[in-house]
Amino acid sequence: MADIPLGDRLDDDDYPAYTMGRAAEMLGTTPGFLRAIGEARLITPLRSEGGHRRYSRYQLRIAARARELVDRGTPIEAACRIVILEDQLEEAQRINAEYRRAANTGTTGTPGPS
C-alpha cells in the first residue's frame, strides 16, 4: 500500500483506514460491538502489521446497518444475517440489471429465439 498515493487510498471504500476505536466512535458504539459482528462474520477487518483491527468505509456502512437493526431490538446474530442477505440481494439485483442491459443491446453472446 505504501506505493499507492495517500489521496487514492483515502478515496478507496475498501481501504482499511480506521482503527477499532475510531470506527466505534464514528458508529456511536463500542469496540465490543465491532468484535461481535466480526465473530458473526458480518465483516472481517484487516489487521495492521501490529495485529490491530482496521476497518474500511464499506465495512463501517455494513456495521452501521447492523447497529440500526440491533438498536431496534433485533438480536445481533439475526441482524448480521439480515445484513448479509440484504447485501446478497443487492448484488443479485445488480447482476440482473447488467444481464437485462446486455440482452437489450444484443451483447449477451447467447442465441436469441428462432
Mind describing the biggest β-sheet? 3 strands, antiparallel
Rg calc = 19 Å
Low-confidence parts, pLDDT < 50 over ≥5 residues? none
SSE succession: HEHHEEHH
- Oligomerization state of this entry? single chain
**How much of the sequence is in beta strands?**
5-15%
The SS-based structural class is mainly alpha
| Percent helix range | 55-70%
What does this structure look like?
This protein has 114 residues and is mostly helical. Helices cover 60% and strands 6% of the residues. It is built from five helices and three strands. It has a three-stranded antiparallel β-sheet with strand order 1-3-2. Strand 2 (46-47) and strand 3 form a beta hairpin. 17% of the residues are buried. The model has no long low-confidence stretch (mean pLDDT 88).
How are the elements arranged and paired?
Elements: H1 6-11, E1 18-19, H2 20-27, H3 31-39, E2 46-47, E3 53-55, H4 57-71, H5 76-105
Antiparallel strand pairs: 1-3, 2-3
Helix pairs in contact: 4-5
How would you briefly describe this protein structure?
The protein is mainly α. The chain has helices spanning about 5-10, 20-25, 30-40, 55-70, 75-105; strands spanning about 20, 45, 55.
